[in-house]
Amino acid sequence: MRRRHLLLVAVAALCACTRADDGVAATVVGPAATTPPPVIETPGPCSYENTIVLGTVANPALDEASGLVASRRNRDVIWAHNDGNRSPGLFAIGHDGTDLGFHPIEVDGVVDLEDIALISGPTGDEVLLADIGDNGSERTSIRLYRFDEPDPAVIGPITDIDVLEYVYPDRPHNAEVLLVDEANQRVVIVTKEQRLVEGVSPELGPTEVSLVFEGPLDTDGDQPTELTAAGTIDAPLLETRTAAETPQLVSLLGIGGLPTGGDVSSDGALIALRTYETIWIWPRPTGSTVAESLTADPCQAGDVREPQGEAVAFFDGSLITASEGPSPDLVQLGP
Q: How far is CA 80 from each of CA 117, 197, 199, 316, rounded to the nearest angstrom?
């Protein structure tokens, strides 16, 4: 569902931006030639001080970018998706923002898409698209859509989809972060718990920390699989450690620390979790699960200056981010 919190109201008032048309841009015959950023040798966990704008997203239909993941077999392609349930599917974009086509997913009941990840399958990489958003904290279950990574050169609908359904062990939660622990065949969900901004918006609710839940990647498909509580992350408290010299609007509103996206590096060694204004990195010790690693103290990867940043992806030794909104920039953070 689209954000109904004060951030959007404030941004709309400041920007008075014209919204793109709700229709999906015309499909293309195949991906145009694009040049991905140069390979960067893997830096230290938080050596991402340099920021480069790679380009601007060209497809006007991708105007609520909520998840990004860099293709591992098509190195010039980034997969992205919109927030919510409007035009659910995958947008293929080049590293400079080039429109490489849209692949709708044909599945009933999409509620609120929030994040995306890749996993290794028997015949190649597969996509996990996370339908986990729940602004009202009222859903009886959440879902992940699992399907083969499409060929970006063959534009068309995605129809062969496995639906993985999960329930929380306690109560419904709003969440926007999906992490995949491939080594242990587990999925990890980090909730977007919200804290009260006194005198500004009672809809933000009482002060809470984000909760970490995990569950099996394979489910039986007959009944929802119950997730397991695996820890907490006080992301708003972490945000007080940021080194930003000038506070952003989201920080002034008191919501800058809410977790909005995440990714695990392709070698499984690093975990990224982004908030509206910061990216945090957890090194993953050998033998540790993703959920266990999140109980340690992270370091700050970068100060992300985006209107409403919700997407982050590892690409070799760099991070790539994007914001919601029309024609967002693709931003690379590297050493």
A: 10, 31, 36, 17
Q: Which residue has the tokens 């982050």?
A: 312
Over residues 179-215, the pLDDT tens digits come to 999 999 999 999 998 755 455 454 554 457 899 999 9
Query: By C-alpha distance, which of 191, 189, 133, 131 is closest to 165?
Result: 131
* Sign for the pseudo-dihedral over CA of 241, 243, 246, 249: negative
Alpha carbon of 194 to those of 21, 74, 214, 274, 300: distances in Å? 31, 37, 20, 15, 21
Q: Which residue shows structure tokens 């009222």?
A: 138
Alpha helices in 183-297 (DSSP H): 235-239, 249-252, 290-293
Q: Are 102 and 61 in contact (CB under 8 A)?
A: yes
Residue 105's Cα: distance from chain center in Å? 18
Q: In whole angstroms, what separates CA 88 from the centre of its chain?
A: 15
pLDDT tens for each residue of 205-258: 445 789 999 999 988 768 899 999 999 998 877 877 765 555 566 665 566 688
